[in-house]
Structures are given as C-alpha cells and as structure tokens.
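The aim of this short unit is practical: by the end, you should be able to scan a pair of folded records and say something sensible about each. We start with the first protein, listed as its amino acid sequence and then its structure tokens.
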Amino acid sequence: MSGKFVGDQSSVKMVNGKISGDLHLAITAKVGDSEAFYAEFNDMAMVASLHSDSKGVWGEFSTLTIGSITPSTFRTQLPGVTATSMASQLELLVTGL
C-alpha cells in the first residue's frame, strides 16, 4: 500500500493526551505488481486518547471513520466492487475497532 495527501488540507492536532485528525488521502493497494485498487478518501476522521508509561504508548479511538471515496477517481480490479460498496465495507471494519 502507498498513500499521498490529496484534495482539501489534512490536519492532525495533539493536545493533552488527545489526538484528532481530518484527513484526505489517496491510497493505492497492490498485490504483487498489480494494482488491486486506487481510492481517494475524503473527510477521514479520528479522535483518540494516547497515554504513555515506562512500558510504551497506548490508547483508544473514540471516533474513527473512513469518510467517503470519490467515485470518479476510484478504480479496482476486484469484480463487482464500487466506491460505495468499498466504503461501506471498510466503514464496517473500522467501526469494530
């Protein structure tokens, strides 16, 4: 997988043990040398609390959403998969975290 920032400005803020972000990313996923999909994600959002101690850094998400995928730039080699269906499935995955 590879990614890059696209579209509107992305931002990440860290204040007093909380981190939040509003992201706009293009992600390309490959299997071997073949592109499996390319998707531009808009309005990805997350809010998490982070803590650290001598054992490491840990935390939990209170908000996590993939936002939407731009249909006009979405492409995939996966049969029957659309921008809408991929967004729905990915959102189901992240809401289970």
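Turning to the second protein, read its sequence before its tokens, just as you did above.
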Amino acid sequence: MACECLEEGRRVKCKAVDGDLVPSLHERERYCRSDGNFTRCPTFQVFRLNQRRLAQAEYYALWTELELPPISPRPPTPHRVEGELADEAV
C-alpha cells in the first residue's frame, strides 16, 4: 500500500509538506510507493511525530542534513624535498 501522504494524479505531491512539494524519484520508489515502507520515510516520521505538515524549509533541512563524522585534528606531517625533510632543507 502506498503512503497516505502521497497524492498521485496529474501532479505528484507529498501532502505531509506545505505547498506543492514533489518527492524525488528516490523518495517515491524507496518510501512512498513501497508496501509499508513509508513508515520509515523521514518526512512521514516527522509528520506523524509533530501531527502537522512540515514547512518546506524543514523538509529540505531534513533531506539535506549531512551526517559527517567529527573532524579530529592531525599533527602536520613532514614533507620530503629531494630526499631530505623540508625542515632540514633550509
């Protein structure tokens, strides 16, 4: 069964988001049209949790948020210049 928020017809639209948002092909194939898989959709989960439609800014923040690992600083490594360390070449 398709997601209850998916409105198909002349224009495809996600009713969990304010405005005329067209879910990407990835979203439609992975979540919207998959049997029961729509409950795993991040948009659907936030929609159900908050019991309200998402603003488009919230939707885009949800789908474009990067999950990067924290950056740990590394000590500089010496570079070789013609077989010698750069610090010794001076």
